[in-house]
Amino acid sequence: MFNFSTNSRIISGLLINLFSSICIVFINKWIYVHYSFPNMTLTLVHFVSTWLGLYVCNKMNMFSPKRLPIRRIVWLALSFCGFVAFTNLSLQNNSIGTYQLAKAMTTPVIILIQTTYYNKTFSTKIKLTLVPITLGVILNSYYDVRFNVPGTVFASLGVLVTSLYQVWVGAKQHELQVNSMQLLYYQAPLSSAFLLSIIPIFEPVTGKGGIFGPWSIPAMMTVLFSGMVAFLVNLSIYWIIGNTSPVTYNMFGHFKFCITLVGGYLLFHDPLSLNQALGILCTLAGILSYTHFKLMEQEEGKSRLAQRP
Questions:
Q1: What CA dihedral angle connects 185, 186, 189 and 194, to 10 degrees?
Q2: Which end of the chain has fewer surrounding CB within 10 Å, N or C?
Q3: What gap in Å lies between CA 44 and CA 189, rounded to an integer?
Q4: Highest mean pLDDT out of 26-35, 60-69, 283-292
Q5: 3-state DSSP assignment of residue 256
Q6: Is 119 left (phi over 0), alpha (psi -120 to 50) or beta?
Q7: Helix, strand, coil shares of the chain as percentages rounded to 5?
Q8: Which whole number is the average pLDDT over 156-181?
Q9: Is the pLDDT reported for residue 102 higher than 80?
Q10: How far apart are CA 309 and CA 292, in angstroms?
């Protein structure tokens, strides 16, 4: 039988990530449209808010920090900065369709990295579930795919660094024997420091649109609320990857993409073409197939362990 206690915790983590991720998309969209707040600076606010949230959790005895050597997590922190920078540059230099198509390639790259460097094996059934998911993303962005040299370079680097970051999030939790809160407690301020050092390259520091620009009180309140939601997003990402796998988190990411498209259609009457609807169905079919095969493999693994003398 399934371990319902474990499964219920995983489902709860996925639901928290689902609702907080969708919520933050609309909050950030509001911030960008109404206040023109700079993207990377907002990300910095999110990570500072995450560290402050964890600091409060620590004071409330919700977890105990574990001392970690900085050199053991410095590459994780740097990969986060690269992930943010290259993802933003990819979005800036590509169409939305090309950007989404590149993001879909993160899952197969993660599988390649884990197979090559971490000796992790994936069954043929699991690998085949990537076919309908990738096809679904292509259908969703078919009419908006345009390639150019800078955009292709940034998109490729974004996929590689994002894949490494997600793999390392899970690997470091197991390697250092820490939970999601303990790892994020050290990684968040380190990533914030690195991100602060590169923000002046991409965004203004002072004046209109700068970090220390003349922001209104409603803008600051909305940004702070965005930071609170980001705390839930970041914590749930680390928790999901640590308790499942980077591949499972990516599959869930495709599901969130479909939900966001449907939500935009139902709530904001965004256009949804026939090929997009087919793409959503195709992606969901791949995700359901992945979930089914993954649960079957887990049950088979438990059965083999139970049969051992």
A1: -140
A2: C
A3: 10
A4: 60-69
A5: helix
A6: left
A7: 80, 0, 20
A8: 89
A9: no
A10: 29
Please give the residue that has the higher pLDDT: either 141 or 215.
Answer: 215
CB-CB neighbours of 279 under 10 Å: 24
Residues in the chain: 309
Distance of CA 173 to the CA centre of its chain: 16
**DSSP secondary structure letters along 212-233:** TS---HHHHHHHHHHHHHHHHH
Q: Are 237 and 249 in contact (CB under 8 A)?
A: yes
* Contacting residues for 254 by C-beta, under 8 A, at least 6 apart: 104, 107, 133, 136, 137, 283, 286, 287
Whether the per-residue pLDDT at 179 is higher than 90: the answer is no
For residue 269, the one-letter residue type is H
**Hey, what amino acid is at 131?**
V
C-alpha closest to that of 264 among 96, 107, 39, 41: 96
Longest CA–CA span in the chain (Å) reads 71
Residues 6+ apart with CB under 8 A from 80: 165, 187, 191, 194, 195
Give the residue from 80, 68, 86, 40 showing the smallest Cα distance to 203: 40
Structure confidence by residue, pLDDT tens digits, 130-164? 888 888 877 876 766 676 788 888 888 988 998 99
Residue 24 and residue 233 in contact, taking contact as beta carbons nearer than 8 Å: yes
Amino acid at 228: M
Q: What is the pLDDT of residues 252-274, one digit of tens each?
A: 777 777 776 677 667 666 677 78
Any idea which residue has 């209104």 for tokens?
216
Q: Is the dihedral of CA 162, 167, 170, 176 positive or negative?
A: negative
